[in-house]
Amino acid sequence: MTDITRRDFLGGVGALVLSFAHWSEAYGAQVIDVRTWPAPEYTRVTIEHDAPMKFRYFVLRTSKPVRLAVDIDGLVLTEQLRKTIEKVKPNDPYIARIRVGQNQPRVVRITVDFKTDVDPQVFSLSPVGNYKYRLVFDIYPAEQKDPLMAIIQKEESEPDAIARLLKQVAEGQKRMEENREEFEEDQIGALIAGISSGNLAPMKPDDSLAPLTPNKPSKDSGQIASKPKESPQANKRPSRSGRRVLVVAIDPGHGGEDPGAVGRRYRTKEKDVVLAVARILFRELNAIDGMKAVLTRQGDYFVPLQRRVSKARAAKADFFVSIHADAWIKPQAKGSSIYALNNRGKVSTSNRWLAKNQNNADLIGGVNIKSQNKQIARILMDMSFTAQVSDSMTYGRRILAELSRINTLHKSRVQQANFAVLKAPDIPSVLVETAFLSNPEEEGKLRTAAFQRKLACAIGNGILKAFKKKATLS
């Protein structure tokens, strides 16, 4: 990408007013679809086409408004294509309008006018899944509105990224140790209080860690009965003096270009279901004193896996939970599961298949590979995850116990697999498979607000119990 002068740019823009000449259908690629994904964090425009296309782009920042021009070689220009590309949703926070025209023989220019200063990225994606070739415009604001993204943006621009990363990991490991110490203090404190009062009773096993027996599937039509919702104030408990706020990063899987699993009966998209569950969990945790929840995405747009982890780290999260809905080749598969990281040991074939599918999100959603720091990625991959995995397994068992109360369990123990989104060495992380969209009965349940709330509260209660919080979601 290069910045050019206004004179150079206008020399090309003048060609946009020429008539739209017809190109031979035998020449070049044809556009299949054009999609726009507006969001506060960034806007993505995707042009899907049936053959490779050569392109170049440049930004004119001295103009008002700021403009992006993309010259595409090998694109078939039709009136329908012009109308499709020029459709921009009126609520887009960054794009004012898009124009398209014939810049020179066999070259089409797409011009994007912006409402504010932006940092655009333009890149191509090879065919994957149900998608053919894609040309992607990612429009990031020059100054991020999202506070977490602002931190990430600043850190990515710093020269000594490796030293910064190592410092972050050290801070995260310290937070993990503090959480373990607080857990032990709670147990010792309760024991001393019981001895002092003379009311010490024989210890009972923790019912939340009792052997898990899968529930029988609900016989109703998916409407799950729920207890009356307590007011947010009723759930609040005063924080103990000196105890810092517990931060939970909630990650709704997939989004935007990546729909995730799709239901067999109702064509329910995983990205929509998990976002609904995540939003409920976000609201409920933030209503509890001493808790703070953050979302890795707040709408229907794609966030690369590495950036999801970066957002959790920027928030200094104590815990990371990625929410998904499962799918399998056979519709009989059902139930909830919990996964922690396993990046070294032996993994079952089904777990390896699931992790591969989830890790393909970056391929399906589309990531600008050139913008990734491969050296940092290698450091993250090679770091020791021993403490993180141990804590993740402990917290995961708590969540699984709560899920067993409201749904059948697909696996009665916390599973392990090599999920890319769980690879924060300084944050205990789990991935929740809420239910199977490939199972018609469970797909029906996942579509209901009542069951979505049940799932959110079960996940939340597992987190609260794992960190010895006295509040309860219902």
Would you kindly provide a written description of the structure presented here, covering whatever features stand out?
With 474 residues, the chain is of the alpha/beta class. The chain contains 13 helices and 15 strands. A six-stranded mixed β-sheet has the order 11-10-12-15-13-14, with helices on both faces. Strands 1-4-5-7-6 form a five-stranded mixed β-sheet, covered by helices on one side. Helix 3 packs across helix 7 and helix 11 (386-403) crosses helix 13 (449-466). The longest helix is centred in the middle third of the chain and has 37 residues, at 161-197. Mean pLDDT is 79; it is low at 1-26 and 200-241.
Structural class of the helices, strands and pairings?
alpha/beta
Number of helical regions: 13
Q: For the terminal residues, how far apart are their CA atoms?
A: 52 Å
Shape verdict: globular
Tally of discrete structural domains:
2
* Secondary-structure element pattern, one letter each: EHEEEEHEEEEHHHEHEHEEHHHHEEHH
Q: Which CATH architecture of the largest domain?
A: 3-Layer(aba) Sandwich
CATH class descriptor name of the largest domain: Alpha Beta
Strand order of the largest sheet: 11-10-12-15-13-14
Largest pleated sheet: 6 strands, mixed
- What's the count of strands? 15
Roughly how many Å is the radius of gyration?
25 Å
Q: Multimeric state of these chains?
A: single chain
- Mean pLDDT across all residues, rounded? 79
**Could you name the ranges where pLDDT drops below 50 across 5 or more consecutive residues?**
1-26, 200-241
Please, what is the CATH homologous superfamily of the largest domain?
A: Zn-dependent exopeptidases
CATH topology of the largest domain: Aminopeptidase
Roughly what percent helix?
25-40%
